[in-house]
Amino acid sequence: MLEYKAPLRDIRFIIDEVLDSGAVYETLPGYEEATPDLMAAIIEEGAKFAEGVLSPLNQSGDEEGCSWSEDGVKTPAGFADAYRQFVENGWPSLSADPEFGGQGMPNMLGIVINEMVGTANWSWLMYPGLSHGCIKTLEAHGSDEQKARYLPKLVAGEWTGTMCLTEAQCGSDLGLLRTRAEPQADGSYAITGTKIFISAGEHDMAGNIVHIVLARLPDAPEGTKGISLFVVPKFTVNEDSSLSERNAVHCASIEKKMGIKASATCVMNFDGATGYLIGEPNRGLNLMFTFMNTARIGTAIQGLAHAELSYQGALRYARERLAMRSLTGPKNPEGAADPIIVHPDVRRMLLTQKAIAEGSRAMLYYLAQLGDVVDRGDETRAKQADDLMALLTPIAKAFVTEAGFEAANHGVQIYGGHGFIREWGMEQIVRDARIAMLYEGTTGIQALDLLGRKVLGSGGKLLTAFTDHVGEFIAAHDDEAVVEFLEPLGRYKDEWLRLSLAVGEKAMSNADEAGAAAVDYLMYAGYVTLGYFWARMAVVAQAKLAAGEDDKDFYEAKLHTARFYFQRLLPRADAHRAALESGADNLMAMPEALFAL
Amino acid sequence: MLEYKAPLRDIRFIIDEVLDSGAVYETLPGYEEATPDLMAAIIEEGAKFAEGVLSPLNQSGDEEGCSWSEDGVKTPAGFADAYRQFVENGWPSLSADPEFGGQGMPNMLGIVINEMVGTANWSWLMYPGLSHGCIKTLEAHGSDEQKARYLPKLVAGEWTGTMCLTEAQCGSDLGLLRTRAEPQADGSYAITGTKIFISAGEHDMAGNIVHIVLARLPDAPEGTKGISLFVVPKFTVNEDSSLSERNAVHCASIEKKMGIKASATCVMNFDGATGYLIGEPNRGLNLMFTFMNTARIGTAIQGLAHAELSYQGALRYARERLAMRSLTGPKNPEGAADPIIVHPDVRRMLLTQKAIAEGSRAMLYYLAQLGDVVDRGDETRAKQADDLMALLTPIAKAFVTEAGFEAANHGVQIYGGHGFIREWGMEQIVRDARIAMLYEGTTGIQALDLLGRKVLGSGGKLLTAFTDHVGEFIAAHDDEAVVEFLEPLGRYKDEWLRLSLAVGEKAMSNADEAGAAAVDYLMYAGYVTLGYFWARMAVVAQAKLAAGEDDKDFYEAKLHTARFYFQRLLPRADAHRAALESGADNLMAMPEALFAL
């Protein structure tokens, strides 16, 4: 069985040494108590829960899956009990607002816990994970009365939440949605329609499920400007938060999926269900956008999680499995063959996984920290952080999930034929990882957001804010010992700016030029951004080694991995550059009818 | 349900117009009857069988899987009946030797049929497909008596065959195998040991199963030089090919796998089973190598098959699914949104699939035709063809299966969230495709074969034989109309030679340099080789258009796709070049202990 061990040393390295979180949180009102020591203690507790309770349920959950009956959805053995422990230990409220019973810790800490929980068992994380969007929506846009009614139970984890957006005919294009909301005499709405792909839409873990539903009012304009937001609880709720009646919302079936099989993906029927409007009518999509970034970062973690888990499994195997002799002579002469970690190509795959996992961890923690600055920093700092988040979030979501899928596949490859067999657990990681490039906005949607809305839409300002930041970092570390990282980083950063200008110019005369460049542009940006985080890690590691600090091996490993990244992975950006520079004609000139020939 | 339609126009284009098979087979003794018309007629019949009988069983087979009991293995509903039809229609004997009841058609035709059958249902193809190695082994190395006893029934498809190589502790490194063969008084051997990953090792489709087994004689040297080859039938066989006794070989269990679930992957126990030596003792591995190339090409087809099937499914969806408006204005103004094929990024993914499928088809048919020249051409031609095959086979096996997996993933991506749901059939293609990079030699093993044995091992001769061939092709088509393809092809070809010299030089002082470069070298070679076949197709298409022939749209589509390939995919070779040129240090310098930090 695949066992997860939380990489506590690396987590601490990024939080404390790379992101200097102690100094950052000290200056953010309300987060002063989030000292390095307190965070480390909480993370260690989270690691125990992830390793001891959730990791053992990962393969069994995949094997058993969820089952549906008219009475509801049954989650796999152990899932509900693990959730009970999760709630008892107060994990759901960790980074929630104290006003509603939260512990008020930084979101970054929540992200770290989610990483460990999700690496141990991504399917399981989907149940508490989906509450996040529901809570954020109510916090930001609910009336005081709605907040009082729903948030304490949601924050405590007694209830869970969902986001009901997708319908059969619309996923990326929510303008096409048809679910209707009819005003009732009592001020509520009767919600009617069918939503699909509703994660945690029904399950056996919590007393109530609070659905946030996108629907149209009778007089709503067509398209995205006519969508409103409603809260629709499974059981309606009395003023004192006690449960009232079973609402007319039911799970009609669950999907058979490629992966994350222990996560119930529900078809939800709303048959005149009682719902309550959140915020202004017809503003639903705008309201949703307010926490889009945090939701995307939450999904980006999946790429990191699967890269990490696959790396752990593959490394263990590569050290134990014997096959062939090293090309440079036996390394295990008394054994029948050498362990496969002696072979350069096995190391290439392992280092690719390691570089993706650790680099993504730095990127995502940084984004999570930015989120905390947005929430609590002064206006100037918050604005800067928000701009950086706006640019980097689509990169993180799409690039990290694509890279995580690659890493998961290397894990299978290192196992050879055994990787294809279910009992080893490696192929499950590939199946689980595949969804991450699809939900919460596909890679293509993220790429349009990055290039169209963020880079071109800001006239380049969001991009230069980041590249200036990178430039300052390079200038601040003008040291021979790290020039091997900073020189190429500077070169790719400058080229990124040049490429953006060139694409922008072409797109002015033909909008398809932006669409044709978008995904390669995003992947280019992803490799350069990951390069920036590897350079930051390398600079810290180099400084620690120069200062003669303990943990020499850890820092040496960072430098080796950084070197691998810059020499072996970063050059992939060049292929994406060539593809995006090739323009739209090679995609658009072929008439549609010719595709079938 | 995903329906397969055989791409007959493209198949004909490659066989007749690109590879000029009529002229080739006319000159090969015994293949004179394989005229274009006869081949086309046979292919059309094969297409009907694949489309009508096998395609409908693909998803149901995945869903049901195989089941094991002490009595044997039950294949999914419809599989055995389809096999009965296959045998009745004479398909198994199509390209087999007439001496044993075969129809004596070219191997290329067999490859075309396998492509269609395998695209419709790869799991099903595994049952007749595994017989191939068994038949080839007996044809090449069996005694006359063994041939007479086994081949007629195998060729007719009444029996099937297997290859029993892998054991739990050894896959790529067969030198570690432990199965033992004890000589018996009657000249037979008692075979004892456990083999794993035996495809079609047990099933309910045929009256007997003939296992080709690698095992060690009592006095055998250690390692690969002590392996002998045996034939071990499920039921021993009388001289007249009637069945005698149930042999002591049994299927102990079948594997639960990521994909190809309808193909039984068996653990086979040999408990003193009666076996018969094939060829000389201790020469087993050498004997196996004689048909390694055809087996690898057979597996390479899987990459082509999955790229084609995923393309067909994705194209259908991209034309029907409505989401968003084209960035350049509505293309379907009366509809609620535009079909997603108007979006550049969807076209990018579709064209990637199309370029991989059609380019791989040209590459693999070419290799199959070379195989026929090796078998039947005069000594000079046979030697030339054999050299080309030696070089190109590992490229085809590894590159086409890697590219096919990428293509299968694009198919899922085009479906968005629906791609992750089983009922659409798209995620099955990804799961089925994943095995192809693992079995019959992993990508890493193929890469070592290519760079180590073939390129460096021949002192560059095998490579220059091919690059000269490419050079002659370029020189022969010095035409402004195709210079956009031939100019970059020439450039990459020259660079390939330069890179090979550079790697060879480094490897002389450090063998790990070859291992560190191998997979990127293979991928580089793959992109250039596919470029050669796209250039060949473009040259033919251009000539047909210039000559004003019919089917203008078909040839235009070829030129568009070739352009896409050269502008968008071929530049990926540069990233592989940079990685392979970066040397072994970034993989080997890190001490093993540091991987865990």
Main beta sheet strand tally, sense and closure of chain A? 7 strands, mixed
- Oligomeric category: homodimer
CATH class of the largest domain in chain A: Mainly Beta
Query: Which architecture of the largest domain in chain A would the CATH scheme give at its second level?
Result: Beta Barrel
Counted up, domains of chain A total 3
Number of strands of chain A: 11
Q: Span from first to last CA of chain A?
A: 47 Å
* Class from helix and strand fractions of chain A: alpha+beta
Question: Are there runs of chain A of 5+ residues with pLDDT below 50, and where?
Answer: none
> Which value, in Å, is the CA radius of gyration of chain A?
24 Å
Biggest interchain interface, per-side counts? A-B, 99 and 98 residues
- Helical percent range of chain A? 55-70%
Classify the beta-strand content of chain A into a percent band.
5-15%
CATH fold group of the largest domain in chain A: Butyryl-CoA Dehydrogenase, subunit A, domain 2
Task: Count helical runs of chain A.
Answer: 20
Mean pLDDT of chain A: 97
User: How does the overall form of chain A come out from the CA principal axes?
Assistant: globular
